[in-house]
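Appendix B: complex inputs.
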Amino acid sequence: MPIPVWDWSDVFVEIGRKYPHRFEDFAQSFAENQWSSKTWMIEQLKIHDVSDQRNLKFTIMGSWYGTLLVPLIRQSFKNVKEIVMIDYDEETLELAKFVNRFNDPNLIKYVQKDLNFDYDRIENDVIINTSCEHMYPMKDFDIKGLCVFQSNNFRKELAHINCVDSVEELIEQSGLTQIDYKGERQFHKWETFSKRFMVIGKK
Amino acid sequence: MIHVLCSRWGEKYGVEYVNRLYNMTKRHLPTEFKFYCQTEQTDGLDRNVEVLPFLTKLPESTPEAMANSTDKFRNLPRLWDRPKLNYFDPECWGLDGMKIAFDLDVIIHNDITTLVDLYKGRPLKHRSWWHNMKEEAKPNWRRRYGARTNGSFYLWEGSQFQPVWDDLQENWKRIYFCFHGGSDNFLTTRHFDLFDFTGPEHMYSFNRGARYPDDLSVHTFRPNSVMTLFNTDPDNKMNLEIHEAVEVYPYLKELWQ
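Resulting structure:
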């Protein structure tokens, strides 16, 4: 199953009609660096033992619209049973529901919470957070399951309150004790200093 | 009797900022009041300014503890104006009755009673009317915990800030970490609904204007406002602090005495 980009046509119409202030944000959700980070994660998860499990349940922390991640998860793993999308922003989740409107309504759960304050315990088969740089350090969360954490050193963005300079620093502040994968990639294609880091493992 | 508070730490603003704030309050608040400054720097303070110690009920909130913190964001302590959070202590140094807190970088030029009369039982603060509200509605504003209010002025009574104080007591570590921009970002994000707001006709920003989109001229004095704020944006080289503005605009010098 490819990414259903044809669905986004209707999404843009919906954004133009109801959420014009969001068109730029939505467009950024499938920018090249988003595609790169999500596909990198999926590539690594697909060769992880967890991919042999059936009926996997995922939690996405700071899910945004799930524009890329939800279809990538669905096409990459067999019989995905549940995807929990947690995001701080009510409107983001309203739009996420529209983006994912053709999915089985029981597949995706939408939870509006500010993870930095309102959510200390998360348990699922796979817990994904591709925006650790926006959040309080993950070691202070009680997380049970396979963790997939990404962060970066791109400090120019004011919303990045918790950047790291290396994958080792990400591991340290994640509190992961079992490391199954760690790596780094270039963050932008036009400059080499900024890096994205990823770690997969368990607490 | 109204208690008027301010805070001074560090060297950004000299003691003359405190003394002039006291003088301006005296000229423009016809009600009986007492004036306080939360500070350790007592040299040169007007004798009518009562000194308040920095409270230590909030961890790492004194200027010294804040400066010693190793957890910085862009070379500044996160939530860099932590000492102002002490205003929200319901005990508030044992001061009963109505309280007003001013930032040091304001010029008061009309009767403060106008602001007092706006009080309808909920704390008062200024809304950042100079913002483009459509920009505020954009996702990135929320993602950055962007401020929509300005804390140059607070007016409150009793324990109205109890929810803020409880939040701080329970979540101080995360609050300091996340709201690196300062107390306005914190209050906007977590306690916006606690407040009533003063209007753009009551105060304005000398560096940003009064109200978006039709009254945004900067470095323009608005004589009918109660006060002029000098909030600055670190990325904007056009911003003027009061001591800079009075050199360029002599009429401000007469008001800032």
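Chain A touches chain B at residues 21-22, 24-25, 88-89, 91-92, 116-117, 134, 136, 155, 158-159, 161-162 (CB under 8 Å).
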